[in-house]
Amino acid sequence: MKKIGLIGGITWQSTQLYYQLLNTKIAETLGGQSSCKCIIESVNFSDISSKQAEDDWDSLHIQMADIALRLQNAGADIILVCANTMHLSVPAIKEKITVPLLHIAEVAGKAVQAKGCKKVLLLGTKYTMELDFYKDILKNQFGIEVLIPSKEDREVVHNVIYTELSKGITTETSKKQYIDIILKAEKEGAQGVILGCTEIPLLIQQEDCNIAVIDTTKEHAYAAVEFALN
């Protein structure tokens, strides 16, 4: 079994989901008392979110690359950034490491294709929804048409992530807001919705939606297990 290196704490709520998913999938696949070989370096999310708000991406890129290198030096055979938004740092990370990095947008694209969707709604932080780093992979590598919510709805999605989900808080009010946003996209022809923030699965699941739900946290973790076992 190869060792998985996780950049965690972005946020710890989703990092614990990764740890649970990785170990559960390994146990299901190998049976017995099997569990995942992994190492985690977990950051202080307060520091990360402050730098994001200040548009200090250069510092974040350096920080992510340094962590990835430490994980590699500690024996990681593959690196996972346990957050969609911080895949903005992937170019900087790849300059520092020689082991593979499993890109969450590429994993999401494969999952969308597997579900037969051509047009999807992308939900996530405002950075993930508004910047091109994520959408370009979906469009250019997979030919997927990507919808994002209106500016007002993007603020709702973003604020729920940072003020509630990052703290493990889920409310029926926020769930209804998300479902209403998904329904709007469905009317625009969306065949699926990418939960492009690793905390959103705390709030939204397939049973909440009429269209296909792509849980990037689960897909990312399962793809890492496939790599680790093959």
UniProtKB/TrEMBL annotation:
PROSITE patterns with a match to the protein in the record: ASP_GLU_RACEMASE_1, ASP_GLU_RACEMASE_2
PANTHER family named in the record: ASPARTATE-GLUTAMATE RACEMASE FAMILY (PTHR21198:SF7), GLUTAMATE RACEMASE (PTHR21198)
Keyword vocabulary terms for this entry: Isomerase
Gene3D superfamilies: 3.40.50.1860
A Pfam family the protein falls into: Asp_Glu_race
Keyword Isomerase assigned: yes
Family the entry assigns: Belongs to the aspartate/glutamate racemases family.
Domain of life (superkingdom): Bacteria
Name the record gives this protein: Aspartate/glutamate racemase family protein
The species this protein was found in: Zobellia barbeyronii
NCBIfam families with a match to the protein in the record: asp_race
